[in-house]
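debug: dumping io for the single-chain case to check the tokenizer round-trip. Nothing else runs in this session.
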Amino acid sequence: MNDQKTVVDYAYWLKMDLWTIKEAASLLSSVEPSSDSSSLAIPSKVEKMILTSLAAKKLIADFSSVETNEVSFYPQNIIEWAKFQKGFRITEQLDDFYKESKQSDDYHQRMADCYEYQDIQNQPHAAEKNNETEVYISEALTKLNQAARKFWANADPEDKETHPKNEAVEEWLIEEGLPKTYAPQAATIIRPKWGAKGRR
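debug: decoded output
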């Protein structure tokens, strides 16, 4: 049974505008950042994952102390990275917060402020640039293109650990409005030939 001191105070942390990398690693590991347990192996492992992930680095919100690794993230951004890029089983509190924040007015602006979304998601393809002349591009196809850029643009063909699982892609597509019956096929369609088969 967890000691009271190690119970995560979600009410406090989810009010924070930014999380440091240590706070993010602890919270994603269901560990209270202010407790002695925040230095345990699991949070440390997650912290290392964040530091070595190209996709996570592109979500850094505050670059003022990058050299010391004391970087910060918007909570919803790093939760999304953990959930969809790494397949973390995040807690109900974090998941509910992510879903609610996604509906907020500043969600897309915060995403646009981060490099991953500037470099990938916010580079519209032709149909998004010229909706009037390319109305034949369906909304579903647009979502597939977005998913391909989101999940595969930063994947390294030689590093299987950077290849997302189909389940993560499917979940994102469903959250974006694609019918559940289409999601598995859609995730397979956008998977590059070099995508690790073992992660399907």
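debug: round-trip ok. The first strand starts at residue 19 and ends at 20.
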